[in-house]
């Protein structure tokens, strides 16, 4: 590492360390929840959190954590992919300092592998590991990401494709939405096309990754962006390039919201169809906590809390990733049919929940109906 690069990295590290964050020091659950199954489960509906050996992710710049550690007022740092802070798959530090789904999973499965660390792109294994998210990706692009993820896992000597249980996180849709107004409903960003692209990507995982649970983070209502950058001319100017449809005045708030809800409906339809519950060793679960949120995180005085965002007012800051990760985790431990569809992003005191000791499995459509049938002797 050259001196200039080292100095730049050190500057970012020092600045990042002072940014607001959210951790849960000393977080513990009922001791029974940390136990692995006596025998490796054969059903996706009887997988304990401690049974998961592999964690991965597909998505766009939000999953790649662009700008998550960017110093305030430095929009150029938003190009950096702070994958170690990513809400689904980041593994920098520990849960005491920073919430991510991967950091919570370390509590249950200390040897879990696949989480990303540090700063870098998807093709740098030492950083990305199994977080294959690519900035700028749309739903069609996670098909390629799914293939890449499969290939990496098939070729990795420490991954037992047939026997290791895997948790793959998916979050996609923001970039589709930012181009939706250019194509309208019958274009490439239509609900039907978006749904087919997501389905194709998940099918690739199903075809090649036995013993896998796919957890998809629900789409969010992007009309929030217009509240976030209101009267913030710097952010407003950046969004012209980052999200053209947000800046198109003829594409109203209602238009934005309705289009986002079409994607939400598509996700729900994929889960409800049961097409990924046709074999016992694979399942798909939607985590819909974002769906009903229309208000961005606010300060007590009612102003938008920009601590939650990177300097471009679009991507999540490290605090934003931790906050999102907390609500995503809480969704994961809630049964299907009883998951939160709206949460209060402004309240940092909302607890990080433990799995249900009476149904200690990763919640799926089937074990949410009758958990008792998935206990083994």
From TrEMBL:
Q: Does the entry feature the keyword Transmembrane helix, yes or no?
A: no
Q: Which UniProt keywords apply?
A: Signal
Cited Gene3D superfamilies: SGNH hydrolase
Any one GO molecular-function label of the UniProt entry: phospholipase activity
Task: Specify whether RNA-binding is a keyword of the entry.
Answer: no
Supply the source organism for this entry.
Answer: Caenorhabditis elegans
Give the residue range of the signal peptide: 1-17
Q: What is this protein called?
A: Lipase_GDSL domain-containing protein
Supply one GO BP term.
phospholipid metabolic process
Which InterPro entries does its entry note?
A: GDSL, Phospholipase_B, PLB1, SGNH_hydro_sf
């Amino acid at each position: 590492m050259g001196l200039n690069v080292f100095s730049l990295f050190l500057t970012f590290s020092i600045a990042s360390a002072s940014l607001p964050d959210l951790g849960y020091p000393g977080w513990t659950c009922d001791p029974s929840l940390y136990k692995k199954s006596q025998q490796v489960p054969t059903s996706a509906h009887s997988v304990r959190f401690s049974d998961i050996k592999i964690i991965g992710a597909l998505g766009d710049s939000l999953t790649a954590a662009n700008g998550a550690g960017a110093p305030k007022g430095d929009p150029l740092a938003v190009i950096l992919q702070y994958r170690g802070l990513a809400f689904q798959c980041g593994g920098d530090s520990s849960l005491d300092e920073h919430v991510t789904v991967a950091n919570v999973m370390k509590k249950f499965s200390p040897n879990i592998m696949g989480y990303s660390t540090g700063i870098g792109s998807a093709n740098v294994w030492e950083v990305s590991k199994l977080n294959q998210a690519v900035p700028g990706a749309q739903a069609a692009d996670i098909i390629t990401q799914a293939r890449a993820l499969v290939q990496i896992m098939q070729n990795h000597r420490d991954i037992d494709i047939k026997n290791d249980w895997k948790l793959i996180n998916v979050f996609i849709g923001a970039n589709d939405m930012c181009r939706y107004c250019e194509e309208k409903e019958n274009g490439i960003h239509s609900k039907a096309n978006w749904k087919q692209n997501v389905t194709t990507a998940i099918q690739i995982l199903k075809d090649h990754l036995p013993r896998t649970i796919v957890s998809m983070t629900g789409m969010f209502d992007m009309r929030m962006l217009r509240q976030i950058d209101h009267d913030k001319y710097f952010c407003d100017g950046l969004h012209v390039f980052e999200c053209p449809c947000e800046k198109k005045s003829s594409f109203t708030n209602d238009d934005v919201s309705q289009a986002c809800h079409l994607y939400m409906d598509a996700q729900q339809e994929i889960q409800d169809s049961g097409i990924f519950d046709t074999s016992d060793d694979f399942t798909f679960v939607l985590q819909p906590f974002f769906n009903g949120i229309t208000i961005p995180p606010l300060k007590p005085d009612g102003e938008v809390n920009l601590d939650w965002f990177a300097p471009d007012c679009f991507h999540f800051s490290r605090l934003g990733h931790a906050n999102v990760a907390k609500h995503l985790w809480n969704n994961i431990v809630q049964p299907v049919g009883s998951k939160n569809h709206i949460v209060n992003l402004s309240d940092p005191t909302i607890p990080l929940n433990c799995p249900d000791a009476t149904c200690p499995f990763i919640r799926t459509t089937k074990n949410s109906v009758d958990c008792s049938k998935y206990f083994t002797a």
